[in-house]
């Protein structure tokens, strides 16, 4: 059954834009008084609303009244929202002057979330995750990547990934699981970092494959986590087993981007510490540069060099990094809008980074733009000009969100 949704004051289909490099708002192909024709959860076309009404007289019409701007649903390609407990204590300590790494070294940090997450059952975790997914979906995020990484043993990582699968089965949002067992070496593992990674390769990754729990792996490359040569070993083993790779790179120190590019990772995420060398590497590769402004805001640090990455020709995605430690806010649009003001990003660059460029970081080519054959993942903002959306710095929320799973 065909369905015509509209009219919308403006539709930003985000089509015809390059995957990499700087964008100007003049390149946006805005459709005024537009409609979206969908069938079986896919876009058939977006065009002038009256024209579509005339050409498809038998389509069911979902009438939109008042001014609205239609965008593709956002893709949050980096989150850690499968966790239990809180780290409000860490946040207070940071604001009292302690650094993220000092807090981690003194027993707080990621390890604290591991303890709290291990203490929760799979169902408790899945229920917590379901609530966070529902909030994100209501805010227009129709595809959400969710990492494990607070289990850090075979049993506990599998529990997290199963909780993610449980939650995925209960939502209209699209959930993309990633195994981040290589977050840090757990304190209860008896052996070196390299041995922990071998244990993951031998004992965890085959089970994840077998049970179809994830097809991506992530690793945190940092002085407090894993070094570059151990990470290269881990990623190449994972790639040989058929996993896609992504990397927590250059958050505090460099090294991660080089590994990500060498391992042909889908994305290198964070990049706050990246310099000209890393920017060039990313611009000349297919690895998507993912900036995580929520982590900069949560840690009170500078942003990744988003403007420079775009000007150099990189594919720049923007994700929330929503996690209990460094990025507890989880409001993707607010984070992107606020960063855009500092980094001087155009609306076209921000929306591209939140949609089709972010889906590239997940190697998904079926979403992020509104054109025939793509998923009918869409969101409508109550305003008459797309510029209102970033201008209101995340306070203007969509009033209607559709995903392919409830849009036919
Ligand atoms: O992306 N950098 C490492 N991992 C997360 C933080 C996780 C945590 O602090 O719990 C991040 O910022
Ligand atoms: Fe992260």
Word description of this protein:
One of its GO terms (cellular component) is cytoplasm. This is Imidazolonepropionase. Its EC number is 3.5.2.7. Pathway: Amino-acid degradation. The mean pLDDT is 97. The protein starts with a strand and ends in a 6-residue tail after the last strand. With 408 residues, it is of the alpha/beta class. It is globular, with a radius of gyration of 21 Å. 38% of the residues lie in helices and 20% in strands. The strands form two sheets. It has an eight-stranded parallel sheet. Strands 1, 2, 3, 4, 5, 14 and 15 form a seven-stranded mixed sheet that branches. The chain has 16 helices and 15 strands. It folds into two domains: 109 residues, Urease, subunit C, domain 1, CATH 2.30.40; 287 residues, Metal-dependent hydrolases (TIM Barrel, Alpha-Beta Barrel). The protein binds N-(iminomethyl)-L-glutamic acid and fe (iii) ion. The site of fe (iii) ion has 5 residues, from loops.
